[in-house]
């Protein structure tokens, strides 16, 4: 372990992290410690576990520097004065999806970075960028060197639709689309074609509403955000007039939150279209719902059935519109003679309560088609495998674990961790 750890500390983590982020994150700053050389020996000492002195008896490795990683570090450092935390991150920069996932018109969501930076400045917290678990180091290596290993490496892979036409151009992952408008290098070259009048977004979560909002927001407003120049230019030439946000279940099962829904209903020059029959009867059960769900459902109901005068006037004049579509599952993406997306075929679902009381979408024989030239899928994410020594369930896209603990053959544990970065 020592030589391996030493070599990657010297090469990747130390050099790159030192140069790029040393100043920001303190402990391994070349300016503080004089030179990259001293930084390397500090890294080496750390790798040999020399930090496990009497004062620092527990040395914890955290893999991943998103919200789960930094909240875990914060909790450990606050609650245990003897703990030292090393955060390993495959990218050169910390903060995971807080940096790359937040919509550019929601800059306040990124304020949580201030909290994470405070944690990063703690003298018992070290950050190693450009170190990938499964490639540069194995879980076994970390287990041997640390008291505990916490895996906070996010869910980096999109769930696929698994339907014909999914591979057509302009059938895109919403996550890549977000990366594209946020200037994430790996998504900068995403081929986004907005020369169509209608787009379909599959999924009823906040990411679905984020991408729909960006598609419909006047570019004059987006200019004031830190959206990527390239995306802004493409959006300026957009012909998209209608966005359909399609979910397989009903209004009581949506996963987006009221803030995002309210923003959609208030988009300039954009009409909200919710079929009143989809919310039929909801008024009778709204009062019994827990408060956040009650407010959300109430807004959906009123938007469909009795929008206020202000909305009625604004929506009448609007040149664009978005539709909230329920109980539909994608069957196939349709193409024209040139291999371009021309629509999506959907199954009409009914809801059936399963044995655990959850409403499940069951496809009926009824089908319908929405004409569109762009499909964005936002139906959830999966974890990726971390190398041969980490048991992985490829079907579910999760690491095999018992109550979030991963056992090895010796009975040692690592811990899996996931969380959101704000309450929405
Ligand atoms: C497009 C999008 C937008 C979102 N917007 C919001 C929002 O506005 N508000 C909100 O509360 N939630 C939002 N979410 C949800 C939120 O991003 C996640 O719930 C949260 O980021 C999960 O935190 P995490 O630390 O588990 O994962 P991540 O934020 O994904 O962080 C995981 C980190 O681990 C690193 N990593 C991965 N594999 C390895 C490896 N093998 N070795 C080392 N490092 C590795 C990654 O580079 C990354 O930095 C959004 C999600 C998406 C997909």
From TrEMBL:
Q: Which cofactor does it need?
A: FAD
* Top-level EC class: oxidoreductase
Start and end residues of each FAD/NAD(P)-binding domain: 59-215
Keyword flag Acetylation = no
- Positions bound to NADP(+): 204-207, 248-249, 260
| EC number in record | 1.18.1.6
Any Pfam family from its record, for instance, is Pyr_redox_2
The Gene Ontology terms for molecular function here are:
oxidoreductase activity
Catalyzes what? 2 reduced [adrenodoxin] + NADP(+) + H(+) = 2 oxidized [adrenodoxin] + NADPH
- Keyword Transferase tagged: no
Q: Which GO terms describe its cellular component?
A: mitochondrion
InterPro entries, per the entry: FAD/NAD-bd_sf, FAD/NAD-binding_dom, Ferredox_Rdtase, Ferredox_Rdtase_adrenod
**Which Gene3D superfamilies does the protein's record reference?**
FAD/NAD(P)-binding domain
**Where does this protein come from, organism-wise?**
Elysia marginata
Q: Which family does it belong to?
A: Belongs to the ferredoxin--NADP reductase type 1 family.
Localization in the cell:
Mitochondrion
Residue positions annotated to bind FAD are 68, 89, 97, 133
Kindly provide the name given to this protein in its UniProt entry. NADPH:adrenodoxin oxidoreductase, mitochondrial
> What are the protein's UniProt keywords?
Electron transport, FAD, Flavoprotein, Mitochondrion, NADP, Oxidoreductase, Transit peptide, Transport
Pathway(s) of this molecule:
Steroid metabolism; cholesterol metabolism
